[in-house]
Amino acid sequence: MIVLYLMCGIPGSGKSTWIKQNKIESDAVISRDVVRFSLVKEHEEYFSKETEVFYTFIDQINELRDWAGKEVKTQLVQKWMDKMWNDGVSAMADISNDDSSFDVKKSHKMYTRTYLEVFGSEPEMCEGVMKEVTDLNAVADAVKAIIPDEMLDARLKKFAIKL
Length: 163
Description:
- It is a single chain.
- By secondary structure, the protein is mainly α.
- It folds into 2 domains: 51 residues, no CATH class; 88 residues, no CATH class.
- Strands 1-2 form a two-stranded parallel ribbon.
- Helix 5 links the parallel strand 1 and strand 2.
- Helix 2 packs across helix 3.
- The longest helix has 19 residues.
- The protein is globular.
């Protein structure tokens, strides 16, 4: 089983310390601290290279995302959506930054809602980033509309609590 530890907190709050103390090991670690300590020398201020740390951190995330092609990602999405459906999950929401999961979602019995992720921190990138997400949204619209409202209403009524 794959376990994800998502650590969130202000710098110095103990995220990395908790991971070390609990002997958490993983094949894939994305950590700004690891990046920072590889770039900042002992005599330098902790946040002295924050821009470089940020971009290296984002590059690590993108590298992990791109480990497989669309076909492999599609097979994995199908596998895990089938598992969730068989375990009784009838609806899910997720975040996408590409369309690799859309075909599976469109044909699956499970109701899905996809939120689009936008990455870009520089003002000069804004127009291009917004164009990419607008184009992706056009593709995602087909997925969002696959279950008519009346069908969703019927599914939700099964779970309604009568007062």
